[in-house]
## 1
Amino acid sequence: MKHFKLSLLTQGALIAALYTALTYLINYFGLANGAIQVRISEALTVLPVFTPSAVPGLFIGCLLSNLLIGASIWDIVFGSLASFIGALFTYFLRNHEKWAALPPILSNTLIIPFVLKFAYGLPDTLPYLFLTVGLGEIISCGVFGTILLYALKPRAKQLFPNNY
């Protein structure tokens, strides 16, 4: 039982660290926040298909990322919650892997435009922000996340032995 808990804790910590590192990296290209964002770290939001530890791992990774890149408090809170909601619903859909990318796409597309508009005072209209954030999420989660999902699937039992 201790080994199982340690394994889950380690997986969650590794996912959080990887999410943070990828977000920090993409921030150098100006794509981690703003009206147009393609966080490649969001591809990791498919990982709850393989392990429940990805849910808190993604939440903590997003929280740390937002802190490190200097996001507003509202972005830190609501952006992290959007990732948590997306990861949680991906976990609920783990038996329907073809839909794994949909929850994070929807949660971020519905929440982040309001954060951008009201926390950062972006002059863009909400429909434009829904479009740009949604497209960024489709690229990050829908394309890269789905590629990651199917790339990891053949090795899932080795990578996530206690969960898959």
## 2
Amino acid sequence: MESINALGRRKAAVARVYLSDGKGKITVNGRDYKEYFGAETLQYVVTQPLVALNATEKYDIVVNLDGGGVKGQAEALRLGISRALIKLDAENKPSLKSNGFLTRDPREVERKKPGQPKARRRFQFSKR
């Protein structure tokens, strides 16, 4: 099987996913994903699409992650893996979609406005 590549994004994080046949090894930026994502919850988020399809031991995944924080990166990786699994087999789409793994979360950080300390916070107002 040829390597399948897909892209996942979340906030400022971008995950480039390369999926190929293998034994279930996930490599993120040259390191094992359990080493890269220290928290158990983030490791769970990354493997969710594979667990949903019972494919944890079928594919090797190599990922280039860039930008954002660890949570954003983990969720970007989840989306990238889901998209790669759909490119591999279109029959995977209904189960992944029902679990919500194919929705790109559109929430981004609102920009800071001039004359304010933050995006919506204003400086204290004094009438006198």
## 3
Amino acid sequence: MALDIQLIEVQAPKVKRFLLDGSLDTETAPELEQAVMDVISTDVDLLVLDMKTLDFISSAGLRVVFMATKKMKAKNGRLAVANRQVQITKVFEIVKALPDLTIFKDDEEMDDYLAAMQEKFKSGDF
């Protein structure tokens, strides 16, 4: 699935906002990573990832979010994630609940689990 990344103009100085639409997965994560790195290299204090129309996130997508958080923190800035859909929120809850515990044998197994869980939440079968 594709990912559309739009840099949205924000009235506040030193604030940048990306609108993410589609799927943030192994194929699309490098594109977001590059866009994020380009913005982080500018004079930005707050970077917002707007996930209002993001349908899916994999472990590769999570890695980009965590990398961006770390890079923004290193420059005394912040990263915010806004407007998460229910299935995306559930992924972040799972990751937060298990910060130091590896329960998957590899990324493929984790992505399979995340995909099944997100589909369950999208369909309302939870």
